[in-house]
Design a protein that fits this description.
This protein is α/β, with parallel strands linked by helices. It is built from 4 helices and 5 strands. About 35% of the residues lie in helices and about 20% in strands. Strands 4-3-2-1-5 form a 5-stranded parallel sheet, sandwiched between helices.
Length: about 140
Amino acid sequence: MKTCFMFGHADCPETMLPKIEEAIVKCYSKGITAFYVGSRGRFDSLAASAVKRAKLRHPDIKLYLLLAYHPAERAVNLTDGFDGSYYPPLENVPRSYAIVRGNQYMVDNSDYLICYAKHIGNTRNLLEYAQKRKGCGRV
């Protein structure tokens, strides 16, 4: 199963939703059926919403919530439309680095990425990390 990790700035404007939906359609046309997204901001909620809408047309699409912290440490609350959650192997990573390392892990282990990066910050740093990654696809 091919995967797509979606990440972006927490202050992503609602006007980006059509572009996110378009990127999901392009990914699906390339055989991507598993989409991973976090839960920490506006981009994440827009991306999850866009995948949920795509699932109505393509029931083989799966949506997974990326967890920054071990599920035994923090309860996982999946909302409707999610097919499950995923916790990357981060047991030995200090909590203060959990989100950054989890995102890097997903960049390293995903076939495609959808990103919204407008200004300097952790998202921009992750995008630059992804761009340096050999074989990083661009939709």
